[in-house]
Amino acid sequence: VAAYQLVKAPTVGIEVARAQQALGQWVEANATAVEVINLPRAEGEPLVFEQAREAARELLRGLTPRIPALQLQLVPEPADAQLTIDGEPMPYARGAMSFRLNPGSHELRVQAPGYRAELRSVTLAEQEQRVLAVELVMEQLPARELPSAGAGVSTLMDEHAVADPGSGARARGQVALTVAGAATVLGTVTGWMAFSAKPDCPGNVCDASLRDEADRSRTLGNVATVSFTAALVAAAYGGWELLFAAPSAQGNAARQPSLRAGLAPRADGAQLQLSGAF
Length: 278
Fold this sequence. Notes:
The protein is an alpha+beta fold. Helices cover 42% and strands 23% of the residues. It is built from 7 helices and 11 strands. It has helices at residues 2-6, 10-22, 26-37, 47-63, 159-163, 167-197, 211-245; strands at residues 69-75, 82-85, 88-90, 97-100, 104-111, 118-124, 129-135, 145-147, 154-156, 258-266, 269-277. It has a 4-stranded antiparallel beta sheet, with no helix packed on it. Strands 4-1-7 form a 3-stranded mixed beta sheet, with no helix packed on it. It has a two-stranded antiparallel sheet with strand order 8-9. 18% of the residues are buried.
């Protein structure tokens, strides 16, 4: 090889290509044979140079179909991925990439910012066409480590939880008040329906023909009662979460929260009334 680098003669190049083929370096032998074929012709060069070029063409015809190929597919396909095969950097482009490799074992490494490095080992046989899919997995961001009061003890906490310790309580309180509102609406509607469906029975003793209507009115009334009770409980819980379990980051000490809840009877049912300062 060193002699060929010094003297780019076809006769030397074809011998290098044959030696590389014998050593299993088929990709290198293929490249050397192509170079020999394309060496410029000099005026008056000896006949053996043209014979060496013809020998290189013959070597290519027999060797090229035998060289294995590896097609690499990355999922996902980051634009700035880095690929090495047997420690040698390889060009990377999005989409399926195909590499011609020598027969035998090869080590692949794929690295991209934000993803874990992926290592693969493949063994290729003569004429083999292999497709290798590599799924990239995103790296997990390390949790922030915050000092605690105890010496030598640390606590891992979420950044948002540290910035706003009452966010969870506020979320629960808002959900509870939403449930209370929905239960109030349900109780009001079913209470009105119970009042409208109630038959006119003297002394609350209904005729057999009105029994179904009376049962329906009674069932709707029970639903309304349960709904108003659930609304009252949810409203009380939500108010407690918002006022006492979720301290605000600013000015919480100056607040004097209060919550008042009541159930007001109406002709068409009942209404849950809430008042207070938040």
